[in-house]
Every structure is written in C-alpha cells, then in structure tokens.
Design brief:
By secondary structure, the chain is of the alpha/beta class. It contains 15 helices and 19 strands. The protein has helices at 20-31, 65-72, 91-109, 132-145, 165-176, 195-204, 226-237, 252-262, 267-275, 288-291, 302-314, 359-367, 379-391, 465-475, 479-500; strands spanning 11-15, 35-40, 56-59, 77-80, 113-119, 151-156, 159-160, 179-183, 189-190, 193-194, 214-218, 224-225, 243-247, 347-355, 412-413, 416-422, 426-431, 437-447, 453-463. A seven-stranded parallel sheet has the order 3-2-1-4-5-6-11, with helices on both faces. Strands 14-19-18-17-16-15 form a six-stranded antiparallel sheet. Helix 5 (165-176) crosses helix 7 (226-237) and helix 12 crosses helix 15. The longest helix has 22 residues, at 479-500. It starts with 10 loop residues before the first strand and ends in an 8-residue tail after the last helix. 46% of the residues are buried.
Amino acid sequence: MEHDDTREGLRCLVTGATGYIGGRLVPELLSAGHRVRCLARSPDRLRDHPWANRAEVVAGDVTDAASVARALDGVDVAYYLVHAMSSGKGFEETDRRAALIFAEQARIAGVRRIVHLSGLTPAGVPEHELSPHLRSRAEVARILLDSGVPTTVLRAAVVIGSGSASFEMLRYLTERLPVMITPSWVHTRIQPVAVRDVLRALVGSARMPSDVNRAFDVGGPEVLTYRQMMLRYAAVAGLPRRIILPVPVLTPGLSSHWVGLVTPVPASIARPLTESLRHEVVCHEDDIARHLSGPPGRPIGFDEAVRLALQRVREARVTTRWSSASVPGAPSDPLPTDPDWAGGSLYSDHRELRVDASPEALWRVIEGIGGENGWYSFPLAWAVRGRLDRLVGGVGLRRGRRDAARLRVGDSLDFWRVEAIEPGRLLRLRAEMRLPGLAWLEMGAVTDEDGRTRYRQRALFHPHGLLGQAYWWSVSPFHAIVFGGMARNIARAAAGSAARDPRHTPAH
C-alpha cells in the first residue's frame, strides 16, 4: 500500500546524526511531525541528545550494505549526510563506495526520496581542476542522482552557524589576529549561508514531488569575499577593525597549517576547507524556494547569521559542533577491561584520594574538566602535548568543549572523546590524539563505607607493538607529576568550591 504523506509524517532515515548538520536536522524533522531513524556506527553516542527518546537509533555503517539495507527498511526519505573529508588519502574511494552502496540499497528498499547535502562547486571549472574535497562531493552527488531514486542535492558553500567548522575558522582567525598576513584566497567571492536556512531546505526537501531529481544551489542573500566576511564578523562581534594583508605565497597545504595553528580546526579539516576557497563559490540559481514545502522564509543575512551564532556561543547553547563527528581513524575498540576484550598488554595508572566535599561538588569539577577550565595538572605539559599532536596531524587541545558545564556521550573534549558518562559517578574519556596504542582516562566520584567522598582516577593504555611499549615507558616517569597532580588539584578544586557554597556541609 502506498504511503500517504499528506496527513501524517514521513518515515525518515538520517545518516550522519552524530555530525554537525545531522545532529541538528533530527530535532527539526521531529518538530515537523516526521518519524526519524538514525544510522550510527556507535548508537551510544546519541543517547544523551535531548531528542534521543523520540528517535529510533540503529547500529550500522554506510560502507556495510547489510546494515544500510536494514536501516532503509520501510523508509520514505533517506538523508545522506556523511562524507570522509579528513580520513586520509583514500577518502575519495571511501566516499565513492559508500555512496554506491547507499544508492543501490535505497533503490532496492523502495525509498521515495534521497536528500543529500553537498558542496557548492564553481561554474565553468573542469572537475579534474577542483580540490579533491569538492571533486569527491560532486561525484557522490552524481552517484545519488543516478540511483533511480528521486534525489534532492543541496549544494552549499560556507555554512555559518555556532559550532560549524567554517564559522569557527572565521571566528578564531578574526578574534585572535588583529593584523593578518593572509593567503590570496581572502579575495575569493563566496556566498555564505546560515545553518538555519540549510536546515529549512533539508526539512522542506522531504516532500518534493517525485518528478524532481536534481541539484539546487543553496546560499544566503549576499556574496562576499573572505576578507569582507572577516571585517563584517569583527564589526558584529564588537572588535576593532582588522588589518588584513594578503600575500600570494601560502599554498593550500601551508594555509591549512596556518589555520590549524591559529584556530581549533585541525589541518586535516582546514585543508579541504581552504582548498575549496581557491575558486569562486557563488549560487547560479535560486530554484530551491519554488520546490520547498512549508511556509516560505527569507534567507538570513550574513551579519544576522553571525549574531545568532555568537549568541549561541556566549549562552553556551551550541547543540552540535564540527568536532561532533568522529575523528577518522580514531579507535573504536572496546575498553580493554570489557569482557569481550582479548589479550595484549594493558598498562594503568590508578589514583584515589579522599575529598572534603560532597560527591555532587566533586562531580561538578569532574564534568567541567577541559576546555577553558584546563586539566588541573602541569599546564605546560598539556600544552606541549597538544602542540605535538597537531604537528603530527592530530586534533590537539584546541577543540575545547561544546558546553562549559555539561558533557554528553560523543562530545569532543580537547583531544579526548566522551565514551561513557554516568552522571554524578563516572566520566570515561577515549584519547583521539595520535598515539602508538589506545588510551582511556576515567574519573569518578564515590562514597566509601564511612560515608566519605573519594575521587578515583584511572589512566589506561593498550600499546601497539614495540613503539607503543616504548611510548608508555618513556612517559611513565612523568605520571606522578601529570596524573598525580591532576588528582590532587581536582580534589582541591572540589573542596574549594564546596567551601564557597553556603549549602556546603563538611564531609564526615
């Protein structure tokens, strides 16, 4: 029986729900009355989202045909929001294979529409001259359009929204550098678009007529150079006027390292972003408005998009960030103490201290760790480790936090990822820094048999080969300073905050 979507919501599958756009699209679809299923490699990473109990989450990977087929069963509209932008030299082949699998399985499942968010490509530029990132995005769009399933491809340039990689790159470059020596691409014309307008287009695309199978350009109402965007950002943010001096010598590779040095965006992500700015990316049609369902809306201008994004940042209401997505190549193995883990060396560093504070006061310190609050131990050592990580292509320390006070499973936390959180009791972080092995850091608040609050801390390392063994023994002499200092300072901070709290009752 054909599904009637005129009176009830559609059945939507969202891939990439752990990413920046996908994590924001799900609640928008739910608000529009649709039923949502999310496909995620690690479903637990979605459990703490405010909308988690209203959406179905299934485990799977877009490169696995069987899991894609299961996820697409009974689906009306499939949102394809994944790409391997920073997964190394083979990302184009990974993108191609995943798109072919998804296209075939969507056709077999009888999906009525595929909706895909892609990149805006410059007109008149041969595909072989595009950056690898844009070339791959164009190929994926073509595969989906040729799938036999009616497909909507939305092509956007720079997305302006709190937490987007493009916005954070713009924000940190402008805020940290009152005088900038910049690459020549600061003169490239760009048509930025507010994330709210992207989401509106994605939601509205679900109900496009079945005879629509094409790509649409999606942009805001203004065309600006990157230089103009930085100057306009400074004005909206209340900063003094920036001095920008372009030079022709910064290649895309050097540009990405320059961006990685100044901003939280690592070079692996900055490179495809800066490579895409070599060419003018401006919309050449505005047909999307005629095809969207729902009430018409005027596109948000650049200044208003920046104001809204900054308001979210300042109010700590950033729902998703560019770092919400997993770091390609980051470990997904089980914790070595899990029952299904088999063999190998496992090194650990245990610390436990009594704390003169309530478990609640201690937990507030634990959950607030990282970002602007730091790591309570030898700041220079952490800064050096973060800098070394970025030098070898890692994420470094500057990813910070999504929220200054609250964490949820899947959040990035500097060069860690929140793997597990039991509110008031346990925080487990998985390392995403470049290491010759796998590493975890656990912090917990417990009450002992005498009713005293105790802080428990455990660092675990599972080495890979001789290099991993050598790494552990080379850094172990510093554990007393780094991990011991962390435990003492966290305990001291909890006691201090409890003493300042008028509701504080001294521990027995």
